[in-house]
Amino acid sequence: MGCRLCNQLFHASYVSGAFGTEWSVKYNQQEICALKGSTVFMNGTFTHPEGLTVKETFWGKHTGEELTDLSKDPDYSGRVEFFTDDQKHFSLKLSDVMKKDEHQFCFRIKTNVEKERWAGVPGVQLRVTELHVEAPEEVTEGQTADLTCKTTCSLTDPTFIWYKNGRPLTTKTIKNNQLHLQTVSSEDAGSYSCAVGGSQHLRSTAHSLRVRYPPKSVSVSISPSGEIVEGSSVTLTCSSDGNPPVKMYTWFKGSTPVGEGKTYSIPNIRSEDSGEYTCQSRNDLGERRSTDLQINVLYPPKSVSVSISPSGEIVEGSSVTLTCSSDGNPPVKIYTWFKGSTPVGEGKTYSIPNIRSEDSGNYTCQSRNDLGERRSTDLQINVLYPPKSVSVSISPSGEIVEGSSVTLTCSSDGNPPVKNYTWFKEGETSPVGSGHSHSPLQSGSYYCEAQNEHGSLRSAPVPVVLSGETHFNYFHS
Asked: PANTHER family per the record (predicted)?
């Protein structure tokens, strides 16, 4: 820094000496602006009248009194060095410049003749400055901002370097001593300082730039993480880095608002709480929504039901298929079919080809997933079939006494139950009676025909012998 400040050449002062030759002290610069803490060089050349021998040279402060040697001043102990050479160049090296060093410094020459001495007055005026960042305290995102590196005096041909959070800025527009932030964003917030080339260690004090901006980086987290099982409790938390800080949070399930505040809790979560949740953050400058958080509530099977195809009446010999439905999560993959309490099949469907009457009964489906199992309500299968196993009973049994009556009763297991019975006597083509029972008046062999909507069946003939009827070839008991 000090070397860079020593390039200008100013006019010097000349005075005639007693020996007819001129004294002269020429300073390369008569005013220097230096950074506090830097090292400064003050340079020049001198001449003296011929015939004199220089015995001593030193630098001193011009205070209006006799110049005293700086190197002997306790305030400059260890901080000053003097240099001269045979070509009558001289210099002062002043290290660790302080604010109290703001003085005029002059070069003093003493010769072998007591009265022949010289002081280069006026000398070099030293001014000391520190770097200071002048900038707004706060700016709104989208605006522009200018940061200025200020000094109290003019440095010689400085190159300004800017730092953000301690790191050099290389991608921003720097013009002279000004840093220009075009279209400020939240990323521009931080601590700024400046320095000049050659003295990067002498930075300004840091200036904190705050940027106001609407919410951004809005995100939602869930606790506890991992699988969510029905009946547990979860808490959603919204995070956002808006400035000023976000104080208004609104929670949505889909497009429906469901809550307010930084957190949203769902105690005893149910399957119907599954869905997409978002958080909307708002501050004075705007609002923004988070991306969706998908809540998938796991639960054991529920709403287990059984359907049958084809629907309607089921007739013996037809085929039916039972289908089990359940909305468990994870989806049900294990289905077990029961007739009563007896397992009869596996799979989402259960088919009964060529159904028989013995297939009638109560059917249920048991659905199972990783979280549990549940049974459906009963599905009643009622198989319709024509009469079968038709039989006739006679009353009274045993001997039939002359003059008594005989009753024949027909039984059948058809479904629907048989309500239409017709009685026939062997050898005759016309029915001899109808109804569940018949009392014959003549001896002979009788049979019953049972009929429902699905068919008919005749019983085996039953012989009836009535006493006292001699015209029949039956024996009296």
From this structure: B-CELL RECEPTOR CD22-RELATED (PTHR46013:SF4), VASCULAR CELL ADHESION MOLECULE 1 (PTHR46013)
Q: Residue 400: what pLDDT?
A: 64
Position with higher pLDDT, 67 vs 17: 67
* Residue 291 DSSP one-character state: P
159 and 191, same domain (yes or no): yes
> Where does a domain end: 162, 191, 212?
212
Q: Do 59 and 125 belong to one domain?
A: yes
Is residue 75 helix, strand or coil? Answer: helix
Amino acid at the residue 212: R
> Does 217 map to a domain?
no
Q: Is the pLDDT of residue 401 over 70?
A: no
18, 125: one domain: yes
Beta bridge partners of 84: 90
* 175 — pLDDT class (breaks 50, 70, 90): confident
Total domains in the fold of the chain: 5
Whether 329 contacts 270, CB under 8 Å: no
Domain boundary among 129, 152, 187: 129
Is residue 163's pLDDT more than 70? yes
Collapsing DSSP to helix, strand or coil, 19 comes out as coil
Would you give the end-to-end CA distance of the chain in angstroms? 153
pLDDT category of residue 6 using cuts at 50, 70 and 90: very low
Calculate mean pLDDT across residues 244-257. Answer: 96
Amino acid at 207: H
In a domain, 2, yes or no: no
Average pLDDT, integer, range 204-231: 96
User: Domain of 434?
Assistant: 391-464
Residue 412 belongs to some domain of the structure = yes
Q: H/E/C letters for each residue in 218-266?
A: CEEEEECCCCEECCCCEEEEEECCCECCCCEEEEEECCEEEEECCEEEE
Q: Using CA of residue 121, residue 122, residue 123, residue 127, what is the dihedral sign?
A: positive
Say how far apart CA 58 and CA 231 lie, in whole Å. 92
Q: Is 61 part of any domain?
A: yes
- 17 plus 123 within the same structural domain: yes
| Closest C-alpha to 179, from 157, 199, 209 | 209
Same domain for 180 and 95, yes or no, is no
User: Are 147 and 134 a contacting pair, CB within 8 Å?
Assistant: yes
